[in-house]
Amino acid sequence: MVVVPDAGESLSPQAADLIRRIARVFLDEPGELMAEVQAAVSAAADEPLRSEPVLAAEVAASTRANVLHWADSIARDPGGRVPANLTPEVLGIAREAFRRGIEQTVYTTYHAGQNAVWAFWMRTAFSLSSDPAVLRQALEAGSTSLAGFVDGMVAALSEQLRRERAELARGSHERRFEVVSLILESAPITTGRASTRLGYDLRRRHTAAVLWTDPRHPDQAALAQAAEALGPATGAAQVLTVIASSSSVWAWLAAAAETDAGAITAATAAHPAVRVAVGPAGTGADGFRRSHFDAVATQRLMSRRPDLRVARFADVQLVTLAIGDEQRAREFVARTLGTLAGAGPELRDTLGVYIREQFSASRTARALYAHRNTVLGRLQRAERLLPLPLAGHGLEVGVALEITQWLGTQPGSATRDR
């Protein structure tokens, strides 16, 4: 016999069935549910859990995992206790919050998520049943189960992570992270002292890199090996690495040669799940900071292109500047490309290569491995879709095409290439 927790009342078969039906809706992961819960959790989270791309993704992955774990458990046992969900993706971001001294955000985000989940649970319940007695039991059981799960999770995480905290504090990565954080925050620490504590000379020229994996499948071993491979690939005199989160590593390459995206891609090919964003070279503590922040900006841009595994700031800095105001960037694209913005990608890609090849149809054909007449035909069709002649507007069109590669086209704006 199933009993409503803390109520001393047997859960009727009809109520148990309703609970299972609601849980199945959750397990189907409706977009509305996940969007509401993620928005509530993000709003309650402290910085940098909202702004750093990897950390924000880890928060989202942890939230999703907890929602599905609770729904699956209550579907299997409508009146039962839901066990804590201490999986790597859940522990990872909670551990990061504790490590950064913002552990209170764990409590606030879990309760914010609880409120959003409960609101969706109630709406779903009323959409599936109109029986007052059945609804009352289903709502009471759901509320008690959800509250118990959240309280249990917070308690379990606190116990687990407090035990780990002393050990983490003694680790070399923890010590390096503390010093690096001071440098990045422009805190009053001398270059000499920071260099000594890091075992890395800050007076040299540095190239920063951010390496990360899918937060649902964190792999610190792969990240460490990929970061180590950057040294030989770039001719760096030394590689400084810091564990930034459960699924990301920060690296600095000392006195590296000019970094090449192809070389970095080849060097990290053994770890295809690892993505790499590379900043420009800079000298001294200021260069150390600027290169890192530019690498993070590149990483943020790469979040729009899941197909891209390696990118350098040098290759995307124009787009980074152009889409600082995304709405105005989209307006610029619309004004500059006109109908071409929504045409088939083949026309846009051909025109983009044509501009990069300094308006040479022959070189464009070679670059695309296409016949020159094929290229000329595509260019003619592309130019007919432009609101202004390509002659005299090549720079603007080239920039607009590059922005489109990253922003895509607005939903519903695509038209067929004719």
Structure, explained:
The structure is a single chain. This protein has 418 residues and is α+β, with helices and mostly antiparallel strands. 62% of the residues lie in helices and 9% in strands. It is built from 17 helices and 7 strands. It has a 5-stranded mixed β-sheet with strand order 4-5-3-6-7. α2 runs antiparallel to α5 and α9 crosses α10. The longest helix is centred in the middle third of the chain and has 39 residues. The N and C termini lie far apart (67 Å). The relative contact order is 0.08.
Mean pLDDT: 88
- CA-to-CA gap between the ends? 67 Å
Largest sheet, in brief, is: 5 strands, mixed
Widest beta sheet: strand line-up: 4-5-3-6-7
The coarse overall form would be flat
Which value, in Å, is the CA radius of gyration?
Answer: 26 Å
**Sequence of secondary-structure elements:** EEHHHHHHHHEHEEHEHEHHHHHH
Estimate what percentage of residues fall within beta strands. 5-15%
Helix and strand arrangement:
Blueprint: E1 3-4, E2 9-10, H1 13-27, H2 31-44, H3 53-76, H4 88-99, H5 104-128, H6 132-170, H7 172-184, H8 191-198, E3 205-212, H9 220-234, E4 238-245, E5 248-254, H10 261-267, E6 275-283, H11 284-302, E7 310-312, H12 313-322, H13 326-337, H14 345-356, H15 361-368, H16 372-385, H17 394-407
Task: Throw out a few tags for this protein.
418 residues; alpha+beta; 5-stranded mixed β-sheet; two-stranded antiparallel ribbon; 17 helices; flat; disordered N terminus; disordered C terminus
Give me a quick take on this structure.
This protein is an alpha+beta fold and 418 residues long.
